[in-house]
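HUMAN: Can I see a protein plus its fold?

ASSISTANT:
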Amino acid sequence: MQRKPFKKSHKLRNTLIAFLAFIIAVLIIFVVLGRNNQTTAKNNVSESTSIKKHKSSKKASSTVAGSSTSELQASESTTVAQAPVAASSAASSAISIATNDATQTPITDNTTTESSITSSSTASSVVQQPNASAAPVSFGKWSAATYNSVSIGSATYDQVRATYGPPTYMIASDQLYATWQSTSGIKVSIVFTPTGNADNLKLIASSKLQTGLQ
């Protein structure tokens, strides 16, 4: 008995099965390649993150090292009630008089000296080395301690001037900006705000800033 050929429905079914198998195979290939790419991307991200962390840690350490050798700076401020408009002429007069105190000449640095003694090859002869000047730690009557002792909110310009001498530079506006500066650039700056009435007007320290004092 002769075998009948495949029906058209069977051919269509086989074609669909082969097509689905092809699609599934393509999808599997894409999934595998996608996972490999994802793994590679994750590795790249983790590597770049670790590099960035390493760079940032190096930068932070260098910043800390740099700040330890840079000039020391401190500041402090408070609110001081400014003189009313009725006392504006008295305030302008007081500021104008104080402005004339500026010397325009930097103050000489104070230095610490160290002496070292060196023994020669023979125990009997001792040679003393000349004094070596260290970096300035204060100037005039200013140091970190004296700067800290200036009480903002209560210290007046007359009191500060009497204790530490006339300032190097002055700038006048509605307030008085006084700066005591050393020959090496260390400085103390204080802002004085006029307060009180025309009969009892005072220039009160409302903020202060120091740079370089140790």
Observations:
- The first strand starts at residue 73 and ends at 77.
